[in-house]
Amino acid sequence: MISEKDLEQEYIERNLGSIMDRIENNNYDYNGKYHDELKSVLEYLILTDDDGLLRVYCSRVKNIVLDDSCFDKIKKSDCIFVLANNISKESRNKLEDIVVSLKNAYYVYCFAFTVTGANIKKLEDAVITLKNGNFICKFAKDVTGANIERLENAVIALKDSEYIYEFAKKVKGANIAKLEDAMMYFDFESYFYKFANEVRGANISKFENKLIESKDAKKIYNFAKYVKNANIEKLENAIIQTSNAKYISMFAACIKGANIEKLENAVILTKDNVGIVWFAANVQGANVEKLENVVINSLDAKCIYNFAKYVKNANIGKLTIAILNTKNLEYINSFMLLSKTDQVYIGSKTCYSLLSEGLEQLTKETFLNIKNSENIGRDIFNQGLSEEIRQQFIDYLFNNIDEDNNSSILRIYYEMLKNPNIKEEDVDVLDLEYKNYIMQNNKENNQGNVLKLKRFTDKSNNS
């Protein structure tokens, strides 16, 4: 069975438009002869949470007094703030108690901010009790009559750097020095830097001293990078003291006003070859030759390889000899395989360096383990080398051939013969040397290569 109340609400729903038109075009006293009708409409509007129509209602109906049936419906409704400014003081106080009882910081803040005559002290107590940093800051910033010092203590007690920063930045009358002291307890989170950089009146030197005490290179670098009025020289000295090559190099590369020479000397003293290579590759104004010599003297094959690959203006000839001296086959192979898309093209340049700086640098074991050693054969006659050097290379090949490495030597020889720039006299020299080798070393397991090369040399001679 449908109750009388349900029928009443159904009637209001069907006729809401005409009812609101009537209210909008007239002025009513809530406690007058239409009290029952006005109360029913008010309960319906609260129930449906229609704050737009409720504003129209409140603008035309005076002396609204809420009874228990209205209070029961109004909980957790944005209509609270519309009604609070249009009801009796007694009803407003009761509504305020409801807001506090909801334990919702948003409602507490909004009531204090929007409702004329609200009990600010009571609402301030409520927002502090709720320990909501966001609305404590908003309360202090927006609510007239708020106790700034009390709210400041509350936000410090939360031990959350974000809200300490927000309070210092946005709340007029905040005690910046006190909030700075509170910020010193945090482990240099992002708001530590934001506070120093963005809060007006912040003592940047205090933040710098805290960082320097930490001896944390990354944090010192970040402070110099993100805080616009940081003391660069002071932080530069501090980061050098950490002996952290990575961040010393990043400081030199990224921080405007950094002393490049000073930082370069510091990164060398770390003896961190990875950091030294990064410095040479990325720091504008770096002394590449000086850093290159340090890496070469370290005999660190990986870093010598990376220096050749990543550092513009690296001395490839010098690095070639250095990589060979390491006797590290893995990185010698990688060095020789640097592609044309890399910073340098090693193929022909390496070949030239090997020959012009002396084949005695090259051990037989090292040379024959170079994976793309045929590149040497392919490029050898493109260098404009002297007859003496070419003959030296040919002699080196055949003097070092033996049963274990003959296929590698033959492959190089074959690639040399394929070179379109090879001269006729070079073919003759190679052919003679090879035939002498075959006569002296007629190995059965070489027959496939022998026949292939013989056909090729015969064809070359005929042409």
Structure write-up:
The chain has 463 residues and is mainly α. It has a domain at 394-463. The chain is built from 31 helices and two strands. The chain has helices at 4-14, 16-24, 35-48, 51-60, 68-74, 79-84, 89-101, 105-114, 120-130, 133-142, 148-157, 161-170, 176-183, 190-198, 204-214, 217-226, 232-242, 245-254, 260-269, 273-282, 288-298, 301-310, 316-326, 329-336, 346-356, 364-368, 374-379, 387-399, 406-418, 424-440, 447-462; strands at 28-29, 61-62. A two-stranded parallel sheet has the order 1-2. The model is unreliable at 339-352, 355-375, 377-384 and 450-457 (pLDDT under 50).
Main attributes of the structure:
mainly alpha; 463 residues
Question: How many helical elements?
Answer: 31
Spans of at least 5 consecutive residues with low confidence: 339-352, 355-375, 377-384, 450-457
Rg, Å, rounded:
43 Å
Termini separation (Å)?
Answer: 115 Å
Give the rounded overall mean pLDDT.
78
Q: What amount of the residues lies in strands?
A: under 5%
Strand order of the largest sheet: 1-2
State the share of residues found in helices, binned by percent: 55-70%
Biggest β-sheet strands, sense, barrel: 2 strands, parallel
Shape: elongated
Task: Give the strand tally.
Answer: 2
Secondary-structure class: mainly alpha
